[in-house]
Design goal:
This protein is α/β, with parallel strands linked by helices and 255 residues long. It has helices at 16-29, 47-54, 80-85, 96-101, 106-118, 131-135, 139-150, 180-198, 200-203, 218-222, 239-253, and strands at residues 5-9, 37-41, 59-63, 90-93, 122-127, 163-166, 206-210, 229-232. Helix 1 (16-29) links the parallel strand 1 and strand 2. The radius of gyration is 17 Å and the shape is globular. The structure holds 2-phosphoglycolic acid. Residues 9, 167, 172-173, 210-213, 231-235 line the site of 2-phosphoglycolic acid.
Length: 255
């Protein structure tokens, strides 16, 4: 049985002070032993706050991005070693905004995934098609290509060391979530692909759905056979809303 994992991607939101009050509130609402994994991914400027507030709690934290190179002339970027110093357990790799706005291609994403694993951190590998690609019947071909490129060199000893977030680009931040049956169709194909690539370990890799997940639709996604969690942007910016989504995951798996 795969344990659900719900992750908050704050994107470029929240000062360190706002992060602190959010995280304190989150710890008030999350019970001591939540029946799922919770991860918050703040901006790099608030990772120290996450470490200060969340260390020793049942909520983990992650980085939204980190460069694979150990150090160097990468103005404005942060390295894996730097985010690891702030206690992160997870690193988002290949988010569609990074791919589209910062020119991260499949080769860069592959290097990030590999370096993240080498740093003993868990990559949350984001894959997903654009609206044009879906309408052109190419959704699976695009996602399969992203998976094959990003995971080409990866050996997976332990399925909990990898997460795949299926995030159709047209559903991100638009309020227009995928239809649950389409999300299951893609998650099922991703699962099959992972099993083909990694054998039985692939069956244990958690697959998240992301794209306009809200408290009122979370349960529909989190109850799907191959969806084990959610990657949440906008609706994760409020701690009560984020926890409601997580509760949807728990309710869906307890049906
Ligand atoms: P959204 O973002 O929940 O605001 O659609 C999801 C994401 O970008 O991971």
């Amino acid at each position: 049985m795969r344990r659900p994992l719900v992750a908050a991607n704050w994107k470029m939101h929240k000062s360190a002070e706002e992060a602190e009050s959010y995280l304190r509130r989150l710890l008030e609402v999350v019970p001591n032993r939540p029946p799922l994994d919770l991860v918050v991914c703040p901006s790099a400027t608030a990772l120290h706050v996450a470490k200060g507030v969340l260390a020793g709690s049942h909520v983990a934290w992650g980085a939204q991005s980190a460069r694979p190179e150990p150090e160097g002339a990468f103005t404005g970027e942060v390295s894996l070693a730097q985010v690891k110093e702030h206690g992160v357990s997870y690193v988002i790799c290949g988010h569609s905004e990074r791919r589209a706005l910062f020119g991260e291609d499949d080769a860069v994403v592959a290097r990030k995934v590999k370096a993240t694993l080498a740093a003993e951190l868990v990559p949350i590998l984001c894959v997903g098609e654009s609206l044009d690609q879906r309408q052109g019947g190419k959704a699976w071909a695009v996602v399969e290509g992203q998976l094959a490129a990003a995971l080409a060199d990866v050996e997976l000893g332990n399925p909990s060391m990898l997460l795949v977030a299926y995030e159709p680009v047209w559903a991100i931040g638009t309020g227009m979530a995928a239809q649950p049956e389409d999300a299951q169709d893609m998650a099922g194909r991703i699962r099959e692909w992972l099993v083909g690539r990694f054998g039985p370990q692939g069956a244990g890799v958690r697959i998240q759905y992301g794209g306009s997940v809200k408290p009122d639709n979370a349960r529909a996604f989190l109850g799907l056979a191959d969806v084990d969690g959610a990657l949440v942007g906008g609706a994760s910016l409020d701690p009560d809303s984020f926890w409601k989504i997580a509760q949807g995951a728990v309710a869906a798996t307890q049906r």
